[in-house]
Amino acid sequence: MKSSDRHPWSIGDVAERFALPTHVLRHWESMGLLTPARDSGGRRRYGEDDIVRVAVILRSKAAGMSLDQIVHLLERDMTGRHEVLHAHLDDLDRRMAEMRHSKAMTEHALRCSAHDIAACPRFRAEVSDIIGDLPR
After folding, report:
1. Torsion of CA 2, 7, 11, 14, to 10 degrees
2. Nearest to 53 by CA among 34, 66, 72
3. Could you write out the three-class secondary structure of 73-87?
4. How far apart are alpha carbons 62 and 107 in whole angstroms?
5. Three-state DSSP class for 112?
6. 110: buried, middle or exposed (CB in 10 Å: 19+, 13-18, 0-12)?
7. DSSP letter string over 9-39?
8. Does the reported pTM lie above 0.85?
9. pLDDT by residue (tens digit) across 108-135?
């Protein structure tokens, strides 16, 4: 048996490793996202699989997934997983498009010599999709 199979890490070890408060790990456990083993004293012992799950949760949260969505992502039963993942992909596409617009606007602002950046016609064009047609 590998040492990683014996669940050597305490909740404090895992919290420190990922710079998380321990209550976050407990909350994730209460939601069913984590199921660490318990030692004879009832203390949580996290193994490699638990560490990977924490990393998946963190990466998924950083990508904008809610904990409810992550529950579907990680559950063994695939019921609802594809719908959640398709919705998340659609959201990522929308957010990436917004970020491309924001990047273009920021790049233009850096190059623009206009005193009032909001009055610059090219800068205004970067937000025209939000403004729509203005009455003349």
Report:
1. 20
2. 34
3. HHCCCCCCHHHHHHH
4. 24
5. coil
6. exposed
7. B-HHHHHHHHT--HHHHHHHHHTTS---EE-
8. no
9. 888 888 778 877 877 777 777 777 776 7
